[in-house]
Every structure is written in structure tokens, then in C-alpha cells.
Predict the 3D structure of the following.
Amino acid sequence: MPDAVAGVRHLRLADQPLLGPLDPLLERRPVPGTGSMVMEVRLAAGFEVPRHNHPEEQFTYMLSGRLQFWTDDAPEGFVAGPGDLVHVPPYAWHRALALDDVVELDIFCPIRPALLEPLIPRPAR
């Protein structure tokens, strides 16, 4: 049996830096790995994610609240809530609206460089 892989990390998302610029309706904490990344996203009710696409595959796992999604494949939209998983293939157009305060995890593969800077250190408590 091989030895444990070097570089195993144990992280607290709350201690990770925020992705800027700061917005009172949006908090994002990206954590890159070697080939993929996870990002905690907090959206205030009413926040709109504009229509966009990207070359990275994305999974969104809903922890709390509800997000209304619209895609080219589902122009009528659908609502994702706690426990739901949304898969966004590479280059798929999508947009969303936070129907409630939302906490979700986005997983990107490969790493999405556009979501790695600018990072703002976590405010001192």
C-alpha cells in the first residue's frame, strides 16, 4: 500500500480569504487544489448572477436557500434548493437569482483562474 500523499490539507472555509471586490450581497471563498477547486458562495436574497459561461465544468451543491437557474437547455428555468446538485458543462450559458439567502459550494474542474484573484484576507475577529 502506498504512503499517504504529501500535502494533505485540513482547512476551515471561514478562515479562507474572500474573493474581491467585496460586495455586501456576495461572498466567495475559493480554495484551489492541484487540478480542481471548491468555492463557498454566499448570496443575499435578490442577488443576480448574470448570464455567463466558462470553459471549466461546474457543479453547484446547494446547502441552504433557493436559487432560480436559467440555461439555454432550460430557458423556462428551475429552482435548486438544499441538497440539490446542479451540473454545468463547459461553455454552457447560465444565470441565476437568489430567491432566499443562499449558501452553496461550487466545484470547478479544472481550476477556474478568473476566480482566484484578487483575494482579500479574512477580516480579524
The chain has a mean pLDDT of 92. The first strand starts at residue 18 and ends at 19.
